[in-house]
Give the backbone structure.
Amino acid sequence: MSSTPAPNYITPPGLAALRAEYDQLLGEERPRIVEIVSWAAGNGDRSENGDYLYGRKRMREIDRRLKWLLERMKAAKVVNPAEQPDKSRVFFGATVTLADDDDNERTVTLVGNDEADAGAGRIGWDTPLARALRGGSLGDVRRVMLPGGEKTWEIVTIDYPA
């Protein structure tokens, strides 16, 4: 019995990044490791052959990553934020500036979970903050339960790519 994976919402650049990683691993890194393993296997005793053992381990890691990338790309539902019809509310792909109770501002962009990078201000669609912001409008105050306790944010701006 096969179950359909949940949709993997992703922006066009996010899908391109997954595809680029897949192509690089399959087309460049894996063939290079196969070559090393083949060469090392020809050198005799494999039980103490570091190149052979490391190569086999690395090949398993690459194969696992390729399988994962393929599953994520198959489940991908590409959403272009520039085509969002209602740009007055927070939806997938929105860049939102928030202000906390002390007027400290933070800008985040809601992206697919596979393309999230909190350090760069890209937060995954399923994070607590993103869930709290979904559907919000300018001036809305949203409460988010974080590991350090509850935090309150006001939506100051909402932008979408052109």
Summary: The chain has a mean pLDDT of 91. DSSP finds three helices and seven strands in the chain. Residues 12-41 form the longest helix (30 residues). The first strand starts at residue 8 and ends at 10.
